[in-house]
Amino acid sequence: MAQLATANEGGAVVKTASSSGRKPFRITTLMSVIGTLPLILTAVGVFVICIIYSFVLSFTNSRIFPAFGPENFVGTDQYSRLWATGRWLVSVNNLWFFGLLSIVANMTAGYLLAVFMDQRIKAEDWFRSIFLYPFAMSLVITGLVWRWILDPNYGIQATVRGLGFTDFTFAPLVNASTAIYGLVVAGIWNGVGVTMAIMLAGLRGVDAEIWKAAKIDGIPTWRTYLFIVLPMMRGAILTAFILQCVGVVRVFDLVVAMTQGGPGIATQMPAVFVIQHITDRSNVGLGMAAATMMLLPVVILLGVQAFAQWRANKAKGY
Fold first, then answer.
1. What stretches pass through the bilayer (predicted)?
2. Per-residue confidence of the chain (318 residues) as pLDDT tens digits?
C-alpha cells in the first residue's frame, strides 16, 4: 500500500501513515485463529448446540433421546408437570437452603481468611496452598472423605466413643433432618479456598494511599477493612459470588458421593433430579425441563455480571 510522505526544510522525506490506515496482515494472526478454532468449534458444538437441543426437548414428551430429532411436542406441559412434582419441589427447597448457608459461610470465611493472609504473614505461600488444596480436589473425593468423617461407624462418632465417651452421638448423614448440614460443611470446606484467593487479589489491588490515609485519620484496622476496603472490592466480591452461585446450582458429585440424595429424598438436588430422570426414569422431556430451569438462574447471574462490568467500563469512559 502506498505511503504518504512529507518533506521538511532539509529535504528529508518522512513517512507518516499508510493511505488506508490498516495494519499489515500478520501470519501470527492467522496462526492464532487456527489455534483457537478447535476450542471455538467445541464451545459451539458442545455448549451452544446442546443447550438449544435440550431446550427444544423440554417441550416434548420424549422418553429417550430421539435419534432424528424431537417428536411429539407438548408445549409447556412438561414445565407444568415439573412444578407439580413433589420430588422437584423438595430439590429446589434443598438447593435454596444449601446455597444460602454455603454461600454466606464461604463469602464470610473467605474474606476473613483473605484479611488474615493480607497481614504479610510468614509462609504465606504454604498457607495459600493449604487453603486452596480442597478446591483442587475432585468433588467426588471430597464427598467420600466427608462421608467417612461423618459415618457413625468410622468417623467422628466412632473415634470419640473409642476414647470412652460411649454415649456420644454424631451421625448427621443418617438423619433426614440433619443430612443437609453435612453437605453444607463439605461444600464450605471445598469452596472457601477459592473465595479467599479472589478476595485476597481484591485486597492486594487496593491503593496503598487508602491505607495511609486511614492510619493518618486514626481509623482502626478492622473498620478500614470492613467499611472502606470492602466496598471498594465490588468486582472481586461479585466474581466470587457468581462462582459460588454457579457451583451451588450444579452441585451433583458432592450429593451422590455423600448421600445419594438420601435419606429418602432429604438431600435431593435439582442436578440429581435431572440425571435420574434422563437415565434411570427414562423421562428425557421432564429431565430437560428441569435442566432448563437450572440454567435460568445461571443465565441471570451472568447477565448481572455483564451489566455490572458494562456499567463499570462506562463509568471509566471506556
1. 30-56, 95-118, 130-149, 179-203, 224-249, 286-308
2. 444 444 444 444 444 444 444 544 566 677 777 778 888 888 777 788 888 888 989 998 888 877 555 568 888 999 999 999 999 999 999 999 999 999 999 999 999 999 999 888 888 888 888 888 888 888 899 999 999 999 999 899 999 999 988 899 999 999 999 999 999 999 999 999 999 999 999 998 888 898 899 888 889 989 999 999 999 998 899 889 988 988 898 899 999 999 989 898 999 999 999 999 988 888 999 999 999 999 888 888 778 878 877 887 787 776
The packing angle between helices 86-117 and 234-249, to 10°, is 150
CA distance 62 to 286: 8
pTM of the model: 0.81
Is the omega angle on the peptide bond into residue 263 within 30 degrees of 0, that is, cis? yes
Looking up cell 412434582, which residue turns up? 85
| 123 contacts: CB under 8 Å, gap ≥ 6 | none
Task: List, in order, residues 6 or more apart from 298 with CB less than 8 Å away.
Answer: 245, 246, 249
- Classify residue 57 as left (phi > 0), alpha (psi -120 to 50) or beta: alpha
CA 258 – CA 186 distance, rounded (Å): 9
CA dist 187 and 98 (Å) reads: 9
Domain extent listing, the chain: 87-282
Question: What is the dihedral sign for C-alpha 196, 199, 201, 203?
Answer: negative
Fold (topology level) of 87-282: MetI-like fold (1.10.3720)
